[in-house]
Amino acid sequence: MKTNILFAAILAMSALLFTACPPAGDTNNSADNASNESNGMNTGMNSDSGNSTNEMAGENDEPTTDIVEGATASSNHTTLVAAVKAAELVETLKGDGPFTVFAPTNAAFDKLPEGTVETLLKPENIDQLKGILTYHVVAGSLDSAAVAKAIEDGDGKATLKTVQGEEITAELDGENVVITDAKGGKSKVTAVDLKQSNGVIHVIDTVLMPSK
């Protein structure tokens, strides 16, 4: 029950972030600002009273944009979109799915050692890049309620198998949901339930790394 309440609080915070976001072209704010992290992720991805809705499709309609289109609409996920294109995963992530994507922001990629992104985007490194990106994808559409239930059922931890094949672990750290990768790295979930036509996106602040 506590897990569900905390996750609901995070969802409510996400609502405030979306409604407080500046226009996508505003570059005066820090990339680490929480409102910027979720700014523009599918122009219809606002939350109201703890429930995610798609304003583009209408509050009671199904989302009309897929995961790739939702990410492309975000000025803070340009690196992720470039990586998806370089890894030739566009058609996969535009497929029926459904998929749950933990989407790192540009600021998350900036945390990687200098030159890492540029190296990964080279054609000769496509397999490594594809492995990293699919490590951020879980089969099925897991909204915040489903993740919260999995954490509660797992006595505080939820183990999720990624499309890449390895696992990530979701747990609570105070009021934050944190994802731990195969190398022990931790990423905080900063926005949840960005629902798309073929799944759902949750925004994270650090790139997840598989063991290989």
Protein architecture, described:
The protein has nine helices and nine strands. With 212 residues, the protein is α+β, with helices and mostly antiparallel strands.
What's the domain count?
A: 1
Q: Largest sheet, described in full?
A: 7 strands, mixed
Helical stretch count?
Answer: 9
Question: Based on CA inertia axes, which overall geometry fits?
Answer: globular
* End-to-end Cα distance: 36 Å
Strand order of the largest sheet: 4-3-9-8-7-6-5
Order of helices and strands: HHEEHHHEHHHEHEEEEE
Q: Helical content, roughly?
A: 25-40%
Which characteristics define this entry?
212 residues; alpha+beta; FAS1 domain; 7-stranded mixed beta sheet; two-stranded antiparallel ribbon; 34% helix; disordered N terminus
Show the helix and strand layout.
Layout: H1 2-20, H2 34-38, E1 45-48, E2 51-54, H3 67-72, H4 78-86, H5 90-93, E3 99-104, H6 106-110, H7 116-120, H8 126-134, E4 137-139, H9 144-153, E5 157-161, E6 167-173, E7 176-180, E8 186-196, E9 199-204
Parallel strand pairs: 3-9
Antiparallel strand pairs: 1-2, 3-4, 5-6, 6-7, 7-8, 8-9
Helix pairs in contact: 1-9
